[in-house]
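Following up on my earlier message about 1-deoxynojirimycin. Here are the inputs again, as you asked, copied directly from the submission form:
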Amino acid sequence: MAVDPLWYKDAVFYELHVRSFADGNGDGIGDFVGLTQRLDYLADLGVDCLWLLPMSPSPQRDDGYDIADYRGIHPQYGTLEDFRTFLQEAHARGLKVLTELVLNHTSDQHPWFQEARASRTSPRRDWYVWSDTDQGYPGVRIIFRDTERSNWTWDPVAGQYFWHRFFSHQPDLNYDNPEVREEIWRIMRFWLELGVDGFRVDAVPYLLEREGTSCENLPETHQVLRWLRQRLEEAYPHQKVLLAEANMWPEDVRPYFANGDEFHMAFHFPLMPRLFMALRLEDRKPVVEIMERTPAVPEPCQWGLFLRNHDELTLEMVTDIERDYMWDEYAKDPLARLNLGIRRRLTPLLEGDRRRVELTNALLLSLRGSPFLYYGDEIGMGDNISLGDRHGVRTPMQWSGGYNAGFSSADTDRLHAPLVANPLYGYPVVNVAAQSQSDSSLLAFMKRLLRVRRQKARLFGRGTLRFLRPANHRVLAYVRELEGEVVLVVTNLSGAAQAVELELGELEGAIPVELFGGSLFPRVSHAPYVLTLAPYGFYWLELRWL
Ligand code: NOJ
Ligand code: CA
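Thanks, got it. Here's what our run produced:
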């Protein structure tokens, strides 16, 4: 059967870290052999596409976002052959696979950088951004502000400063140099030929620098990205997907879709903290406001929605007051804060409250866009904020309550990161095996949610979204609609039971059918439609004209 080229608009994505997912050879580090063995779990969970964190050879000073060889597999994760097998097995189960394209910077251990720094006349010199002073591009913000003091670092070997937007061991590539652009395209081709379905493209706003600007979202950067997309379409027309990581306001992300000829997808960063804010404030306003501020995107394009990922919960796309509120409410422990964010997983952020975890997932899966789940969140895994950097949200997957959580047969001391072992979230309590045995587990709930969402994938992925404005502002309600199909989503953001009167106007005469249990609700009349909701309760109601 022909694959719909817009498949990503209906898909649910699952982000995972090979290092932390499953160890196949018993050395304490996750690898492709282990991941391949767990593909049945992912297919059974009901996701459509996997997104893998960086997997290429790397000194691992930024968990692989510091690449030393773009055409290989990090030896701890296996071989290219192991990757090929994994890809075949994933595809055989109907799962698509996105890998990382880290194009803004390399590791300082990359041979290109080693050659570039060695001499001013090296042909590689111009592959990076050099200066005799550290005064260029003044005022450009520092992203990793807890570790870096400047975007310039002195390289004693080169005898010059080099430019970097992230860690000082991650020199930025120079995209003004056509050789760099061509090489990145060749690298993309390499992986596309192997069969990957597309890329999550890292840190796209920062490709080029221009004096007197913020060096972010520059027209020149868009030009390079559109050029890459053009190459992609020429070589693989309508076959592959590009997803942008641009942590920006919606109006600044919109240009990354261009006329449908730049990125297929981009993450919606500002929505994420606002979902948490709405929940804490028990008020729909933050969500409605940001969604209404979100511009329409061309038909083949799609937003990527998420609650958590492998980074800190970033609070860059909020006001200072909102950030303080989020820190006060969600990161009382200063150890939980990192850069401008919060390094916690979903369930601990929500204080282990099952109702809130279910509600946020129900929102994630029913708002307009393609949802991204983060590995382990489907079982409510905890974190470990005493590990450095963002490692606390990247601990080994908890498969069972047995030896090393079923993650690895290695000596426990050799695991690449300690297992979460605290009394609330430790692997003896929170694990796949236990939750697979219970219909009332979070895992069972997530599977049901994913199953129902898949039945309505086109509607949730592509349908219109219209917010309702009931007087009760603790209720967030919206109508999703596609080609005559209508689903009404009603959610209670508060910890107390709520009643709500909804003006359903043109839906008069329809019978709402609750999508999880199939129960019929009273027919919609001309009068306001009254619903009551349990604390943090929600409904997905399909409107049928019976
Ligand atoms: C964004 C990635 O999500 C993050 O993990 C990484 O540290 C930076 N880009 C630098 O590559
Ligand atoms: Ca291993």
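One observation from looking it over: The pocket of 1-deoxynojirimycin (ligand 1) is lined by residues 62, 65, 102, 166, 202-203, 245, 310-311 (CB under 6 Å). Hope that helps, and feel free to reply on this thread.
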